[in-house]
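Consortium newsletter contribution from the modelling node. Members have asked for a concrete example of what our holo predictions look like. Here is one, prepared for the zinc ion complex that several groups have been discussing at recent meetings.
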Amino acid sequence: MIAADETEDAMPDAMPDAMKDTGGITGWHAHVYFDAGTKPAARALCEAAVARFGIAMGRMHDDPVGPHPMGSCQLSVPPEVFGEIIPWLVLNRGDLTVFVHAESGDHLPDHTRHVLWLGQSLALDLSIF
Ligand code: ZN
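And here is the predicted structure:
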């Protein structure tokens, strides 16, 4: 049993006064990172995700674009697909890193706090926000 004062101590200082509702999330991006050696695997993963989930796939960017530190391809994930595609990416990403972030309209927190990393997490270029 946890005493009330211990529970209070366990609350992070950054806890907002009001919890955010997930209804503010209009969608998710899953950015599949790759370099020259892993580009074919990244393309295959993205194309398989498109075929399986009927989602949109962006261009294969060989170089860093936006905040992304290396080559990447963006999958646009509607909220209703999130619960299916994340476990699928976990099982099928191999050694690829996938950066998943919410789209809530608030770009900096969407790329720093509202995120999941599948695999190794990398430092983003946040200077554009
Ligand atoms: Zn994105």
